[in-house]
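hey can u check if this looks right to u? its 444 residues, i copy pasted from the old doc so theres a chance i mangled smth
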Amino acid sequence: MDVSITSVPRWIFLAIVVTLASLESSVAQFPWTKEPSSPMIVVEGVNNTNVRLEWDYDAAFRRLIVGIKIFRKGGGSEKLIARKSGEGTINPTTLDLVDRNQDGREYEVVEPATLVLKDVNNNEEYEYVISVDYFPTSSSPQTTDSKSVFVEVKVPPKITTKPLNTRSEIGANVTLTCEASGDPLPNITWTREGATTNQLDNVTGPSFDLVAVRLIDAGSYRCTAENGYGTVTEVASTVFWPSGPHQCSADVWDEGTTQCNTSTVGIRITEGAVWVDSLANLNSAEFSGLANNLTVAISSPYSRPENEDKRPYQILVKEFSRGSVRARVEMEFPSTLPDPLKPLRDAVQSGKLGMFTVDRELVINPTRSPPQSSTGSTQESKIPPDAGKRTSGLSNDIIWAIIGSCIAVVVIVAIIIIVCCVVRKKQSPGGSKGLYTEADGYRM
């Protein structure tokens, strides 16, 4: 009984000690109310300007702050960027850059404790630390608390080596190359334009190999680079022709007779393509993309086994024009083929050609479209109906100005004549009752 009585004060004492220690710890902790998340992800070209590292604390605690400093750590070194003296000192100051001349190009500071990174690049991944010297209580010694944030920079992908358009013989091996940079390093995948997913199964990496190519392999192949912070693509077209003596090329002649015939056809696309002015520019990405897709669509009927002997050596989209989108296409065939356009003509009779809806008839040997203006619209003819006759060389505005001047002169002359007539009538005998003459004076 005596033991239990003596043990009670001991447990009470221990509880009091633990409670006081806890209270002291809670008082010593600096009262942060806001801090940036760490790591802070910054993406070049997206959110890498005016990046705010914003800290804040209980305003009631400001009178106990001795000073605030903001550091930058990285590469084994540490740099003091900004500082201020707090209200717990004799001469408090506002937060300011330590070296405004040097650091003012990179940073700004905002009260009470915000650092703004003006422009963050991939080589500027740092840890930023804010340190606060303060008195936990008015009677306790000075202590220090700090918070840190790591700024991590990501770079969207950029294609550094573009896949090139390729022309090769059927049966050859062809390699398309596409390289990209970025942080993290992008993943590269290959797809075929206008193809279903099962026609190109998970081809990845910077190189895409086509082994023993066939005519059906001709078309457009898209390289896509993606790293989670952006996506970029490039397209390359491939054209294949039969090997041997019947391949079409300039200066290929057989006893003075060319071995190739060129057929020009017009195809009107009503669905699957929309006219934009850039389609009039052969060097634009829009022209290249649509031309590649149309080449694939035209190749499709010739890839069937029954049309093997009619396969073209080359399919070349020469131009696009309005209405809805009209394409003029040149196709090269062996000169011995009797009707090389029959597979294409049969295909368009269904109104579908690959991914496009088209007119059901081909236009053979279409005329070239008129030149396009800078806005892409067709220039209208402004030749007058009497073109070829002799003209004065004066513009319509000048002619109308001359006519107007002549009319004005006629009107002025007419007014002068009328005024003169009225005056003479008044001066003639009997023209006025008050007219004075030497013979009889004023006539009453």
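Confidence is low (pLDDT under 50) at residues 23-27, 249-257, 373-392, 431-444.
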